[in-house]
Amino acid sequence: MRMVTKLVSKSMAKSLHLEENCFLEQFGEGAALQARFNYYPCCQRPDSVLGLKPHSDGTGYTIILQDIEGLQILQNQQWLTVPTVPNALFILMGDQMEIMTNGIFKSPVHRVITNKEKVRTSIAVFYTPEKNKEIGPQDGLVNEERPRLFKHVKDYEIIHWEHYQRGMRALHTAQV
Ligand SMILES: O=C(O)CCC(=O)C(=O)O
Ligand SMILES: [Fe+2]
């Protein structure tokens, strides 16, 4: 998984014409990788029961492997289903990547719906900056055309969790 995060972090930096290690440096040597194994049983009332409530992740980003469809992303007030691609990992931006890219990569609200016939399992690996490490918009992404949108933050996932439990987003707390 470390290798995946190195590859993904470098690729994202390159795609924004930044020095390839800049995000890895923000995450720090002690960046956390935590895996959550999700099991969604069949549900007789998928019309009224969700597998996971709408939320954004407080991570840098989250690496997801899913066996069947169920994960949905909110875009323009519409829920879009993330397709299952065999042997593919799905990389979902978290709030801290939105902060580091000064709003260029968006951390989407997502949810999991339930299914009458099929059990669903997924593995979510949460990649989060090192404890006590300050992160913020990357220098090359703040300029006259794109003013700074976010402050520097530290241990953002704590405030994110407090908001999550109340069904709220925390990203506004990092806005300038
Ligand atoms: O089960 C999934 O596909 C996504 C899980 C998720 O969004 C989460 O654990 O934060
Ligand atoms: Fe999530």
Automatic annotation (TrEMBL):
Domain (Fe2OG dioxygenase) ranges: 31-129
GO molecular function, one term: metal ion binding
Cited Pfam families: 2OG-FeII_Oxy
Highest taxon, organism lineage: Eukaryota
UniProtKB keywords: Iron, Metal-binding
The name this protein goes by in its record: Fe2OG dioxygenase domain-containing protein
